[in-house]
Amino acid sequence: MAELSTTARPYAKAAFEHALAASALAEWSKMLNTAAAVAQQAGVQKVLGSPALTTAQQAQAFIDICGDTFNAGGENFIKILAENKRLSLLPTISELFEAQKAIQEKTVDVEIATAFALDTASEQRLAEVLTKKLARQVNVHSHVDAQLIGGVVIKAGDLVIDGSVRGRLAKLAEALNS
């Protein structure tokens, strides 16, 4: 995975800088997300890996599959990736682009796992507190995880806040075994 990120990073950076300069982050985000989804399809991977097609034919086939998704800059980006045999990196490029976009927009996706469903007011209070703590706008995605027994586990990028009963019991067991 590290090798894919290393190879994909310059392409993601170039796409991001172009989109930022053109004030088209949302449009490029949509294009790259669609391209990443298409690139992961088994049939498309078979076409991209076919030695019978030239890189120009692979790029055109990919653009045709995606339909009207790409603007002129997006089509050019796909052609450059095809020329360099990097179309398979599109999922990683899209992921890296989204990370740069989140930094630029000062947003972060927060995953909240709770033992029981949160009501809307509690979810909003958590979002407000996290917005202040992280100094970013948070996009909350919550789900129920019955294995937590009680409490909450919050994941925001690399930050994990484990306030679950299961987590506390694990810490207690670790302390007793030490």
Walkthrough of the structure:
The protein has 178 residues and is an alpha+beta fold. The chain folds into 2 domains: 2-103, Peroxidase, domain 1 (Orthogonal Bundle); 107-177, 3-Layer(aba) Sandwich (Glutaredoxin), CATH 3.40.30. The chain has 8 helices and 4 strands, in the order ααααααβαβββα. It has a 4-stranded mixed sheet with strand order 2-1-3-4. Strand 3 and strand 4 (159-164) form a beta hairpin.
Summarize the structure.
The protein has 8 helices and 4 strands; from the N terminus they run ααααααβαβββα. The chain has about 180 residues and is of the alpha+beta class. A 4-stranded mixed beta sheet has the order 2-1-3-4.
| Global morphology | elongated
- Summed over residues and divided by their number, the pLDDT gives a mean of 89
Number of helices: 8
Q: What CATH architecture of the largest domain would you give?
A: Orthogonal Bundle
Write down how many β-strands occur, each being a DSSP E stretch of 2 or more residues.
Answer: 4
Low-confidence stretches: none
* First-last Cα distance: 35 Å
Please, how many domains? 2
Rg value: 21 Å
Q: What percentage of amino acids are in beta strands?
A: 15-25%
What share of the residues lie within helices? Answer: 55-70%
- The H-and-E topology, N to C, reads as HHHHHHEHEEEH
State the CATH superfamily name of the largest domain.
N-terminal domain of the delta subunit of the F1F0-ATP synthase
**CATH fold descriptor of the largest domain:** Peroxidase, domain 1
CATH class of the largest domain, anyone? Mainly Alpha
Strands in their spatial order, largest beta sheet: 2-1-3-4
What structural class do the secondary elements suggest? alpha+beta
Largest sheet geometry: 4 strands, mixed
